[in-house]
Predict the structure.
Amino acid sequence: MTEDTPSLYCVNHPNIETHLRCNNCGKPICPKCAVATPTGYRCKDCVQNQQKLFETAQWFDYLTSIITAVVLSFLGSLILPRMGFFVLILAPIAGTIIAEICRIFIRKRRSKRLYQSITIATALGSFPPILANLLGFTLSIGQANFSSLVFLIVEVAYTFLVTSTTYYRLTGLNLKL
Ligand SMILES: [Zn+2]
Ligand SMILES: [Zn+2]
């Protein structure tokens, strides 16, 4: 700032003198109206527009990708835990497939909320066998039922791995864009 900078007045508060300008649109803004961003001070309008750019997912993206995640995660939960501890390798592959298929549907559009929804859908889809097993396990308490306990652990491992891989694949790729 030089001494002879002409006085500016905030666009939102015409009585407040300021030296700040939004570094995107150049509007003079007072410290109250300025939002600190990684690239400098910006006015609220510009920050809002920026956020809209990052939320470009459409309603049908939610529909297609949530159905995809629930169905695939459910199918995986029926098949993969039967492979025993191979689930440690197979569940991350399943999560990757779910995330990649969802990305084909949603293309370049993106949204943090959409990624979170897909992740929750993946977790929900993997749940029915766990619930069924839990129910069976509760009913059979009293009898030694070690194998169904092991199966339960494998199923929980599947849920955890498929869900975290799906989330990581979706958001991790997003960071690179
Ligand atoms: Zn601005
Ligand atoms: Zn202001």
